[in-house]
Design brief:
The complex is a heterodimer of chains A (about 100) and B (about 190). Chain A is mainly α. Chain A contains 3 helices and no strands. Chain B is mainly α. The longest helix of chain B has 25 residues. The chains are: A mainly alpha (about 100), B mainly alpha (about 190).
């Protein structure tokens, strides 16, 4: 089942990348990043079955980093919303030249 | 690609949860409402947890449900609720022609990469013998498989992770705190007290 799991993981990662590129809502883009992290976790778990349990330990670390990232990222989104009253990336163009 | 080592029951459910995960992911990126998108993403995570169980990662499946579907997605839903973003009408947020073309091209490139990589073979000397994970699970239990390397070989990384979480908590509180526009130090200290 290794090939199927890796193919599924790659397809989910692709969906996450496409989601980041076609959406403008910052929260949805953030959730697409979480989907990509999940896709990578799936390939770690699938490979850990063949190469030993270290992959599962790595998934554990990825989940911790994802939790930290979600906390900080959502706090940034909230503070942006307070300034702009929007999470649409079209309205957040301070760095546009 | 049928593997004789896996019974039909296993294969059927593997594909079933795989299709659920893929369909939910597609529904997730196409929903207009952030709440609907978040709930579809929870569905993806549950399907992935089922796949983790089938891939002999029982503890990871449990914390996938508890941490990802339970904690992280609840934080997302809280923020959607807090910012009152649940109305799909105001979010016509699909990008224009160029963004969609870029997404389509990049998606096709990544899918082509899958097709190329799926033809490669893993080296046999990298592969642990079949049933190794089952032996480990029987010997150490579902948690011991992860906990044993976590607290021995990866102890430093584990401790650094706790520092990372502390930094994230402090950072989230500092960023999310409502900044008062008063510059009066007396009122500032009254707020802090």
């Amino acid at each position: 089942m290794l090939a199927e799991a890796l193919a599924l993981s790659a397809a989910l990662f692709t969906i996450g990348v496409v989601g980041v590129l076609i959406r403008r809502n910052a929260i949805i883009i953030f959730m697409c990043v979480e989907l990509m992290l999940n896709a990578v976790n799936l390939s770690f778990v699938a490979l850990s079955r063949y190469y030993g349990a270290d992959g599962q330990v790595f998934v554990f670390f990825v989940m911790t980093v994802a939790a930290a990232e979600a906390a900080v990222g959502l706090a940034i989104i909230i503070s942006i919303f307070r300034h702009r009253q929007s999470v649409n990336l079209q309205n957040i163009n301070l760095l546009r030249g | 690609m049928t593997d004789p080592a896996y019974p039909l029951f296993y294969t059927f459910h593997f594909y079933l949860f795989g299709v659920i995960a893929l369909a939910s992911a597609l529904a997730f990126v196409t929903r207009k409402s952030p709440v609907a998108a978040a709930l579809w993403l929870v569905n993806v995570m549950f399907a992935l947890a089922a796949l983790y169980v089938m891939l002999d990662a029982h503890f990871i499946a449990a914390i996938q449900v508890l941490v990802y579907a339970g904690a992280i997605m609840v934080v997302f839903l809280f923020v959607i609720m807090l910012l009152n973003l649940g109305h799909p009408s105001e979010i016509a947020d699909a990008r224009g022609k160029w963004g969609k073309m870029a997404a389509g091209v990049l998606g096709l490139i990544l899918l082509a990469e899958i097709a190329v990589v799926s033809g490669t073979r893993v080296r046999p000397e990298w592969v642990v013998p079949r049933g190794e994970m089952n032996r480990l699970l029987a010997e150490k239990g579902a948690i011991g498989v992860v906990a044993d390397p976590l607290f021995t070989r990866y102890l430093l990384a584990f401790e650094l992770t706790s520092i990372l979480l502390l930094i994230a908590i402090v950072g989230a509180v500092a960023l999310g705190r409502r900044s008062d526009h008063t510059t009066d130090p007396a009122e500032e200290s009254a707020h802090a007290g």
